[in-house]
Design a protein that fits this description.
Elements: E1 2-7, H1 10-20, E2 27-32, E3 42-43, H2 51-60, E4 65-68, H3 71-75, H4 78-84, E5 88-90, H5 98-101, H6 103-113, E6 120-123, H7 126-136, E7 140-144, E8 153-156, H8 159-170, E9 182-186, E10 191-200, E11 204-212, E12 215-217, E13 221-224, E14 229-232, H9 239-259, E15 265-275, E16 278-285, H10 292-299, H11 304-313, E17 328-335, E18 359-363, E19 366-368, E20 374-376, E21 380-387, H12 391-403, E22 410-411, H13 418-423
Parallel strand pairs: 1-2, 1-4, 2-3, 4-5
Antiparallel strand pairs: 6-9, 7-8, 7-9, 10-11, 10-15, 11-14, 12-13, 14-17, 15-16, 17-21, 17-22, 18-21, 19-20
């Protein structure tokens, strides 16, 4: 098959790494890609949000299948345009991608169908929003309704911080059109987890669980980011809890979307809070998480590509996936200053020899200089991803690899997967199992 992956981050590198290993994959393109993705696919200089450019390229190159990584082109209707052009694609339609495109839509859907979530209010008037904040008290959460590149959520510890967040969105226009409406919701106590399912419009096939770390610094402190690391599986997600999530959250959502004339096809990513009352939905994403995708593909024993195609074809009912039991950990190396202002263009050395069995360095924000040097080109730059017989072993392997990377301008958290390690990851170990073999394609 001739396949196009859309996107340029660590998630897309992970998808390309997995897809390139499939016997079904003949020629693989990525638009726009990055320096790491270039080891797996031919990168083409078309932006992920250039819908017309992507459709035109897919036509010209007789692409058989398109895998859309980021949320913005999904919300913009890229899958609709591809399907209209007779090109099969993985990802929801614009009508279904509203599950990520509008937090208010999701909250209303939950309220209408009894899906457990935080109490909330929707507001376009700043004074009404502030009155709601004062009535609920802090801590409280303020979210821009639309897509804000991961920066539209404020967990306010004080009323002053909550009111400032309301003003930033509704008065100051900090998030543009995405912040023209805000959702203000109660602060949920518990442990966060990420849960993924492939959905073909009717059937939902659960994938592995994961847990990511949103805060920039150790101890879950500092500003929210797009994610500083992740691990899978999440020990908090027991089989019993996974069954509850499927029955109480995912299944009613899929049914509600179909009944509303918005059948959902693609990967459904449920951000959860595991509370004393059980799992509650924080938000939905309409694509694979980043960096959760990186640990999922490391643990996936089955060929990913047929699963994606089965999702598009609506035949998940007769599909199944197999997973390595070993846990995976990914640690994000980011540019100093991220998620605030940061410098681009610094040189990264020391990656030679790091791609080995059970260890992959996925590129999130890199490019090649004309002279071949590897340069940082984003906020999140590298995802050092490892498997281990325990979470602690996978964590140690990832950090040992990081010590070999020469990039003074970068930083990382040093406590990724701390919850699982503190719980004692030995519970996930079965020493009788063979070591998993790396499935990725050979690299030069």
């Amino acid at each position: 098959m001739r396949i196009l992956v859309v996107g340029s981050g660590g998630r897309e590198h992970a998808l390309c790494w997995a897809i390139a290993a499939s016997p079904l994959c003949g020629t693989l393109y990525c638009a726009p890609g990055n320096a790491g993705i270039a080891q797996e696919a031919e990168c083409v200089a078309i932006g992920a949000e250039d819908v017309e450019g992507l459709v035109g390229f897919a036509r010209e190159q007789a692409i058989d299948y398109v895998v859309v990584g980021p949320e913005a082109p999904l919300v913009a209707g890229l899958v609709d345009r591809l399907n209209a052009a007779g090109i099969k694609a993985f990802g929801p339609s614009a009508a279904a991608a509203v599950l990520e495109g509008s937090k208010g839509f999701v909250k209303d859907l939950c309220a209408a169908h009894g899906i457990p979530t935080a109490a909330y209010g929707r507001f376009t008037d700043p004074e009404e929003a502030k009155a709601f904040v004062r009535a609920r008290a802090a801590p409280i959460v303020v979210k821009a309704d639309g897509l804000a590149a991961g920066k539209g959520v404020v967990v306010a510890e004080t009323l002053e911080a909550a009111e400032a967040a309301v003003d930033a969105a509704l008065t100051e226009g900090a998030f543009g059109a995405a912040g023209a409406e805000v959702v203000v919701e109660e602060f949920l106590e518990g442990e966060e987890a990420s849960f993924f399912a492939l959905v073909d419009g009717e059937t939902a096939l659960p994938l592995a669980s994961a847990q990511d770390h949103k805060r920039a610094f150790d101890g879950d402190t500092g500003p929210n980011t797009g994610g500083m690391g992740a691990y899978s599986p999440a020990p908090v997600m027991t089989p019993e809890l996974e069954a509850r999530v499927m029955a109480e959250i995912v299944a009613p959502t899929v049914a509600a979307m179909t009944a509303a004339g918005r059948p959902y096809k693609g990967v459904l990513y449920a951000g959860l809070m595991i509370t004393a009352e059980g799992p509650k939905l924080i938000e939905y994403n309409a694509r694979f998480g980043d960096p959760e995708c990186q640990v999922l593909v490391m643990r996936l024993m089955s060929d990913l590509l047929p699963a994606l195609i089965a999702t598009s074809d609506g035949v998940l009912k007769s599909f199944d996936l197999r997973w390595y039991p070993e846990p995976a950990v990914t640690v994000v190396l980011a540019a100093e200053g991220y998620p605030g202002p940061y410098e681009k263009g610094s040189e990264i050395k020391g990656l030679e020899g790091l791609d080995e069995e059970d260890l992959v360095v996925f590129h999130a924000g890199t490019k090649r200089a004309a002279d071949g040097r590897l340069l940082a080109a984003g906020g999140r730059v590298l995802n050092v991803t490892a498997l281990g017989t325990t979470v602690a072993e996978a964590q140690a392997r990832a950090y040992a690899a990081i010590e070999r990377i020469d990039w003074p301008e970068g930083f990382c958290r040093r406590d990724i997967a701390w919850r699982a390690v503190a719980r004692d990851g030995e519970a996930m170990r079965d020493t009788a199992l063979p070591r998993p073999l790396r499935r990725g394609p050979e690299r030069p």
